[in-house]
Write a structure and sequence with these properties.
about 220 residues, 10 helices, five-stranded parallel β-sheet, elongated, alpha/beta
């Protein structure tokens, strides 16, 4: 009876991890021989792991990454010129904490989106907030926000994001208003990782988007 009361109390306190671990200990007689401090440590470790997993799930759900990818699955045998040492440095996510930007370039189909999502996944696993957006979708959201008065709220949401991934960059020529909106995002310091297209027409459009001398520091991959 006392154990059931304890389990209910743990659930009320939202200590789900400890509750599950205590039920497992009850079902595993071998854990009964452990000292009280050891059993308590196992309960605490389980709660920490449970909270970390919940936070990761929440971050990944918010990020809405386009493809499920992770750094560990990179195939360095592919002739893309990726260096293990450089990718290890990017996997540390220190460049995000230092407010640097990452530009991933390469021909169509070489895996730029996959690589950007892998870095986004790595950032989520380190507790950083991530948001994936296709550039056309970003422009659409900003256009709507201008119309319904939610522009300030949208920019605040982007500002609170540790890593902003902009995909499908330079797919079409952008107008003056879109260029201004994009520069607002960049200059507010929320521009994290972008994936520009590299065909000739898209590259020229991409360059046309940057007519301000204020270009954020970054890394080219």
């Amino acid at each position: 009876m006392l154990t059931h009361t304890t389990l209910n109390t743990l659930r009320q306190l939202k200590l789900t991890g400890m509750c599950d671990a205590l039920e497992q200990q009850r079902a595993q007689p071998e854990t009964h021989d452990l000292a009280f401090e050891e059993r308590l440590a196992l309960l605490v470790d389980r709660e920490v792991l449970h909270r970390e997993n919940r936070r990761l799930d929440r971050l990944l759900k918010t990020a809405r990454l386009r493809v499920p990818a992770c750094i560990e699955d990179i195939d360095y045998r592919h002739p893309r010129g990726l260096e293990r040492s450089r990718m290890a440095g990017l996997a540390s996510c220190d460049w995000i904490r230092q407010s640097l930007n990452l530009c991933i370039t390469g021909p169509t189909g070489c895996g730029k989106t996959w690589l950007a999502c892998a870095l986004g996944n790595q950032a989520c696993r380190q507790g950083l907030s991530v948001r994936y957006l296709r550039v056309p979708r970003l422009f659409e959201q900003v256009r709507i926000a201008h119309g319904d008065g939610s522009y300030a709220r949208l920019m605040t949401q982007l500002l609170k994001t540790d890593l902003l991934i902009l995909d499908d960059w330079g797919m079409q020529k952008i107008n003056a208003q879109q260029r201004q909106d994009l520069m607002e995002v960049i200059e507010d310091g929320v521009w994290g990782a972008m994936e520009p297209k590299t065909n000739v027409s898209s590259e020229s459009h991409r360059k046309g988007a940057f007519r301000s001398p204020a270009h954020p520091p970054g890394i080219t991959l």
